[in-house]
């Protein structure tokens, strides 16, 4: 896996400075509703060590410039016998948004999810007349709304991390998000995966699914939420439940954060707590994940036959069959060769 190293300076913008084709190992992970990450394991030299020691170094794969990774950590290990090594790691370009917080209160009620994302980013990171100049990122722009998309969200964002807010909207609104690198800047783009369940099937029968791992976990699942907040000398609360009873009822308490109650009436506070409780209940799900190593990459080619965020069919040898979203793509390359491993989440079992 060949990796380009890019440097950014305000005077010259983005420029490629070298191509790395000698990594001992590469891990390259892209995610649908979370920030991706990477790790390079390299033979160390003084020149290579100094190359990564600044705040604005980015990496791209030679065959795909759009996914850029920002270098955030460099670890040097010296060993006279085995040789000196560098471990370079970081996150995908979406992490740039984590450098901002949502500074003005933003309240949205049944607004398209992609529009809310664009508004939050515009208000806190895209240069415009009302934004403090130092907060603007001239090299960043918003993309286009998702054609035909109608999923709406409701929410209130204030003094929260901008990137955390974006991922929260993505999960509630059932969309993905990318910060696309163009070679001269970045474009923020929400997107929705395609339904490929009739065309793409991964199964042992088709000999395109190797080692698999299925997880069913309800450790953090609940079906009743009580949200509370303190206003002066009294506690206000709101409870939302799915009407489960007895041993099926699992209660959970959340003490609301980042909520300024000083200027809210009692009714307004209850309404906000009820909205937050509904959102927390919605996000509480039994965790079901299915990961599998693709064996026959010629049958279904990533980036052509299916993409991150697409819905596909999965069948394993234990009678587990269902549709799932491709939520993560991990590419690895080392002495053992190249592997592409998708992770399938949002599992829905076919009965």
List the helices and strands and how they pair.
Elements: E1 3-9, E2 13-20, E3 25-31, E4 37-43, H1 46-51, E5 57-61, E6 64-77, E7 85-92, E8 106-112, H2 113-124, E9 140-142, E10 152-157, H3 162-173, E11 176-181, E12 186-191, E13 201-203, E14 209-217, E15 224-231, E16 234-241, E17 251-255, H4 266-283, E18 287-294, E19 311-315, E20 321-334, E21 337-349
Parallel strand pairs: 9-12, 13-19, 15-17
Antiparallel strand pairs: 1-2, 1-5, 3-4, 3-20, 4-7, 5-6, 6-7, 8-10, 11-12, 14-18, 15-16, 18-21, 19-20, 20-21
What would you note in describing this structure?
The chain is mainly beta. The chain folds into four domains: 3-91; 100-191, Phage tail protein beta-alpha-beta fold (3-Layer(bab) Sandwich); 201-218 and 287-349, Elongation Factor Tu (Ef-tu), domain 3 (Beta Barrel); 224-283. It is built from four helices and 21 strands. It has helices at 46-51, 113-124, 162-173, 266-283; strands at residues 3-9, 13-20, 25-31, 37-43, 57-61, 64-77, 85-92, 106-112, 140-142, 152-157, 176-181, 186-191, 201-203, 209-217, 224-231, 234-241, 251-255, 287-294, 311-315, 321-334, 337-349. Strands 1, 2, 3, 4, 5, 6, 7, 13, 14, 18, 19, 20 and 21 form a 13-stranded mixed beta sheet that branches. It has a three-stranded mixed beta sheet with strand order 9-12-11, covered by helices on one side. A three-stranded mixed beta sheet has the order 16-15-17. A hairpin with a 5-residue loop joins strand 3 and strand 4. Helix 2 runs antiparallel to helix 3 (162-173).
């Amino acid at each position: 896996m060949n990796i380009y190293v890019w440097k950014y300076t305000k005077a010259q913008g983005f420029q490629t400075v070298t191509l790395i084709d000698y990594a001992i190992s590469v891990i390259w992970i892209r995610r649908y509703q979370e920030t991706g990450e990477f790790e390079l394991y390299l033979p160390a030299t003084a020149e290579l060590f100094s190359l990564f020691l600044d705040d604005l170094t980015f990496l791209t794969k030679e065959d795909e410039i759009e996914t850029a990774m920002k270098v955030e950590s460099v670890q040097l290990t010296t060993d006279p016998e085995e040789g000196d090594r560098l471990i370079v790691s970081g996150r995908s370009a979406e992490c740039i948004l984590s450098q901002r917080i949502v500074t003005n209160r933003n309240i949205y009620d049944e607004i398209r999810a992609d529009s809310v994302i664009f508004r939050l980013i515009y208000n806190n990171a895209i240069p415009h007349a009302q934004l403090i100049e130092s907060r603007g990122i001239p090299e960043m722009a918003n993309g286009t709304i998702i054609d035909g998309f109608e999923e709406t969200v409701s929410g209130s964002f204030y003094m929260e991390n901008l990137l955390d807010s974006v991922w929260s909207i993505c999960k509630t609104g059932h969309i993905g998000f990318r910060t696309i690198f163009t070679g001269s800047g970045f474009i923020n783009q929400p997107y929705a995966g395609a339904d490929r369940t009739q065309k793409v099937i991964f199964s042992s029968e088709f000999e395109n699914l190797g080692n698999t791992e299925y997880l069913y976990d309800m450790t953090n699942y609940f079906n009743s939420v009580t949200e509370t907040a303190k206003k002066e000398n009294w506690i206000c609360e709101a409870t939302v439940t799915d009407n489960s009873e007895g041993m099926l009822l699992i209660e959970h308490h959340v003490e609301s954060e980042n909520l300024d109650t000083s200027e809210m009436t009692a009714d307004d506070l209850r309404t906000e707590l009820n909205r937050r409780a509904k959102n927390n209940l919605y996000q509480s799900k039994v965790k079901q994940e299915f990961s599998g190593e693709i064996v026959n990459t010629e049958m279904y080619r990533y980036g052509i036959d299916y993409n991150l965020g697409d819905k596909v069919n999965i069948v394993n040898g234990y009678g587990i069959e269902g549709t799932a979203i491709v939520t993560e793509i991990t590419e690895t390359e080392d002495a053992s060769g190249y592997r592409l491993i998708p992770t399938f989440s949002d599992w829905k079992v076919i009965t």
